Amino acid sequence: MKPLIALVGRPNVGKSTLFNRILRQKSAIVDSTPGVTRDRHIMPGEWQGKQFLLMDTGGYCAANDVISSSMIEQTLTAIRDADCVIFLTDVRSGLTYDDLEISKLLQRTFQNKQIFFAVNKVESPQLTIDAESFVSTGFTNPYFLSAKDGSGVADMLDDILESLPESEHTDDDDDTSVKLAIVGRPNVGKSSFVNALLGTNRHIVSDIPGTTRDAIDSRFIRKQQEYVLIDTAGLRKRTKIDAGVEFYSSLRTEKAIERCQVAVVLLDARAGLEKQDMKIINMAEERKKGVLLLVNKWDLIEKDSKTSKVYEDNLRSHMGNLSWIPVLFISALTKKNLYRAIDTAEEISRNRSRKISTSSLNRFLEEALSAVHPSTKSGKELKIKYMTQIDSHWPVFAFFCNNPELVQSNFRKFLEKKLREQFQLDGVPISLRFMEK
Ligand code: GDP
Ligand code: GDP
């Protein structure tokens, strides 16, 4: 799995600027689907051929300008399972009390974690001299940089990537395990689900809301396939810091989803689909991960022969255009459908990496176009000449046509629906690109 680099520092030192600066180097396909939010806190990046995830912890904190103890605690929790930390300060505002507090905490809490200490906004010889004094934090090898103009950033990245674990962590292609993020709101049964699968009680399951646990990845093998369960059960924390709970869940969930191939979203059958569940599903969809929806605690529902059908129809009516997501009814308690869930997740992962030949796609296209002639607003004719699948981690289809601007959304939807009917793409987001040819 890709190593995770956490970016910390008080508000306004330039974390977001550095975040964007570092990620600008990445060569990944950026999805151009309209409406994709840019409000992300964990993003994949690449430097000198090495891949990593960068986490901006500040995005969650910047709302208030004052560093509170709970804010610091939240930041610490967020970076606990990062592989290394960039601690950013700002030469123009000088070292502040907050900087010193953060540095003390980092030094105290993470004695074994590599911390890259950086002074930002160093853009002149005088500022370089000023920045020298930042060693009083106790971090003796500061990087001087400017997130704005980019100076110094490359040198720091070289050192960071050098310090991170080699290939087995960075080379996704050699790793054939299926990575599943087990996500969902607190108390839906994530730990119980993981425990039932692993057949151990390594994870402590508890009725007490707010029990502190740490997330651990678990591996198991089924039918010769290795699985990694990326568990977010540790997201429940002391209720004392109420405001923090949402923060923990979001960040943990985001982190787990970023690292998975398939997001396994658990619901509590009694609660149904709530806003927070949709947020989690959307998080996975936006990142082009596979999604499987599991309605857990099905043992608690009084049923007749129609119950699951009615329940599913109701769920789907609230899921908008996410009808491609498979839904299963399970019970972590009675173990009903647990292995079916895993096998479905495996199938979704296979669908996600499915490569469809150009000749099959063009046969498909010919048929689809003979059924429906694309209408256009302007009366100009849209001509699609051929299509192909673009190499990517999820299915991306390119359509070459006379003028991409003539493509209307209902025609796009029609093509997506037909593609899903024809090829096995259950549980995976797909992207359609229209290009001029
Ligand atoms: P965050 O709150 O830590 O995420 O900080 P931001 O990235 O939002 O930056 C805070 C302010 O500092 C903004 O006005 C940025 O334009 C500015 N800033 C960020 N990096 C630099 C830098 O390298 N040099 C200078 N001069 N300004 C910077
Ligand atoms: P998590 O916070 O999502 O990890 O949820 P837990 O696994 O800790 O489960 C919360 C509570 O729901 C515990 O009391 C579990 O025993 C209970 N629970 C979990 N799964 C099931 C299930 O399938 N059926 C029933 N009846 N209870 C369950």
How would you describe what is shown here?
The protein has 437 residues and is an alpha/beta fold. The protein has three domains: 4-163, P-loop containing nucleotide triphosphate hydrolases (Rossmann fold); 170-352, Rossmann fold; 358-436, GMP Synthetase, Chain A, domain 3 (2-Layer Sandwich). The protein has helices spanning 15-23, 58-61, 69-79, 97-109, 125-132, 153-163, 190-198, 242-259, 275-286, 307-317, 338-352, 358-371, 409-422; strands spanning 4-8, 42-47, 50-56, 84-90, 114-120, 143-144, 178-183, 218-222, 225-231, 262-268, 290-296, 327-329, 384-390, 396-401, 431-436. The strands form three sheets. A six-stranded mixed β-sheet has the order 2-3-1-4-5-6, sandwiched between helices. A six-stranded mixed β-sheet has the order 8-9-7-10-11-12, sandwiched between helices. Strands 13-14-15 form a three-stranded mixed β-sheet. Helix 9 links the parallel strand 10 (262-268) and strand 11. The two termini are 38 Å apart. The protein binds guanosine-5'-diphosphate (2 copies).
Which labels suit this protein?
single chain, 437 residues, alpha/beta, Rossmann fold, GMP Synthetase, Chain A, domain 3, 3 domains, six-stranded mixed sheet, 15 strands, 34% helix, 20% strand, binds guanosine-5'-diphosphate, GTPase Der
